[in-house]
Recover the amino acids of this structure.
């Protein structure tokens, strides 16, 4: 009798132990699991807007290399163009122009901008070590530091070297 | 279902034969390559930020870009992986060939397996073309533009430069010797499309190679190798690279018994995947740079 009761009590204990172990060993989903789910599959949205500007159209608005800085074009994709800024063979900054029609949130963040460059809203993001302007509410021009020697002042200086007026004529 | 980009980068090995072999090449390009493993870690290192909200946002954008097949990133990853698979098969065949040569009873193997030198020559050239095509898939620029690739090659650093260093050392110097550049040029010049079609590495990626039919693709591969041979030649001579030097350094990191020396190139092909390892790192870096810039 006592033996039978003992066995009956064992089953729920064993079940709890099994559940406890499976809970401990099951992996937590990655923080990118949701975006992975949202961007895969047949009906996933495209990453780049259909009418985004061709990256090659941005190239002519980039500043040339000067004063010991060499400019090397590094990426040219739909809605995006990028160039590296190198000094003495070392990459110190990255210049880019992107079409925010693919990422409206990017344009929206300029609403909290409190300063301007050539009348365009300017935003410095110290946590990203980058400074950008938004041209015609659509094209983000950005300079990002890739070395401690390239300061926030340097970023503004190089932003000014872009042909922002020319970029604003793009429809 | 193919793996997500964050899984691919998170799961890169931190040790093992591939990593050891690449570390053994540090003497060629000192300090240029760190084995960066982990998606978030790569975001932190590329952008310099440790802000978790920014990391999340950049990571999400990079994932979205990778998952959009039309952006070409998955094609690049496929190229890197397929080249490594082809190399593994080639390496195994070359080892079988060598084994056949060493044992008279197995001499028939030497007839049914492709000559190691020819196979290694094609492997090197096709890997180079895969690098050009993957470069264009990732960074843009028309797929045919060897000239643009050459300009960018001068700016190669980090894991991309390490991949080229490994290509020169493991796929050039070790299996083909110090005159590998001239040897490849000669062999490619005298090669028939049919010979190319029999090669595993070529078969895997041929649809991505510009040139139309196999004859045209052979022409593109030969031209590409010719254009890059100047860069390769400078790379070797400026560093005084020799097969002995590379093997010597490799032996500091990887146990290589004397009997393996004969087919070390094939052994490396079979047991390492330096191409897809560094290719994954290159791809992650470019994706993250773009995602961070678009924020």
């Amino acid at each position: 009798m006592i033996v039978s009761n003992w066995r009956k009590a064992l089953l729920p204990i064993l079940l709890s132990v099994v559940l406890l172990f499976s809970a401990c060993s099951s992996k937590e989903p990655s923080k990118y699991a949701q975006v992975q789910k949202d961007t895969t599959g047949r009906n996933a949205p495209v990453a780049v807007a259909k009418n985004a500007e061709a990256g090659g159209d941005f190239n002519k608005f980039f500043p040339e290399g000067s004063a010991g800085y060499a400019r090397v074009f590094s990426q040219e994709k739909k809605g995006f163009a990028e160039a590296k800024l190198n000094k003495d063979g070392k990459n110190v900054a990255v210049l880019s122009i992107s079409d925010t029609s693919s990422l409206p949130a990017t344009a929206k963040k300029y609403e909290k901008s409190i300063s301007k460059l050539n009348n365009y809203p300017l935003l410095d993001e110290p946590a990203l070590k980058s400074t950008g302007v938004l041209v015609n509410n659509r094209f983000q021009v950005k300079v990002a530091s890739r070395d401690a020697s390239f300061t926030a002042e340097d970023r503004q200086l190089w932003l000014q070297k872009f042909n922002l007026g020319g970029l604003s004529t793009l429809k | 279902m193919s793996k997500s980009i964050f899984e691919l980068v998170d799961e890169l090995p931190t040790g093992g034969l591939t990593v050891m072999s690449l570390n053994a090449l540090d003497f060629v390009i000192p300090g240029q390559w760190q084995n960066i493993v982990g998606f978030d870690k790569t975001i932190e290192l590329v952008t310099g930020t440790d802000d978790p909200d920014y990391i999340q946002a950049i990571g999400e954008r990079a994932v979205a870009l990778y998952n959009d097949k039309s952006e070409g990133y998955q094609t690049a990853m496929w190229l890197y992986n397929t080249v490594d698979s082809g190399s593994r098969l080639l390496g195994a065949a070359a080892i079988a060939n060598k084994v056949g040569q060493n044992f008279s009873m197995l001499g028939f193997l030497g007839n049914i397996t492709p000559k190691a030198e020819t196979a290694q020559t094609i492997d090197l050239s096709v890997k180079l073309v895969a690098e050009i095509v993957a470069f264009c898939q990732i960074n843009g620029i028309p797929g045919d533009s060897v000239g643009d690739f050459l300009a960018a090659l001068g700016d190669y650093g980090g894991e991309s430069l390490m991949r080229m260093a490994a290509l020169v050392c493991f796929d050039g110097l070790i299996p083909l010797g110090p005159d590998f550049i001239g040897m490849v040029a000669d062999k490619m010049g005298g090669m028939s499309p049919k010979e190319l079609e029999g090669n595993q590495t070529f078969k895997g990626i041929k649809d991505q190679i510009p040139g139309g039919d196999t004859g045209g693709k052979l022409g593109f591969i030969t031209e590409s190798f010719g254009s890059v041979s100047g860069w390769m030649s400078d790379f070797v001579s400026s560093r005084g690279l020799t097969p002995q030097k590379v093997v010597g350094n490799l032996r500091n990191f990887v146990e290589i018994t004397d009997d393996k020396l004969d087919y070390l190139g094939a052994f490396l092909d079979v047991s390492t995947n330096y191409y897809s390892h560094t290719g994954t790192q290159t791809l992650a870096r470019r994706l993250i740079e773009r995602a961070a810039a678009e924020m």
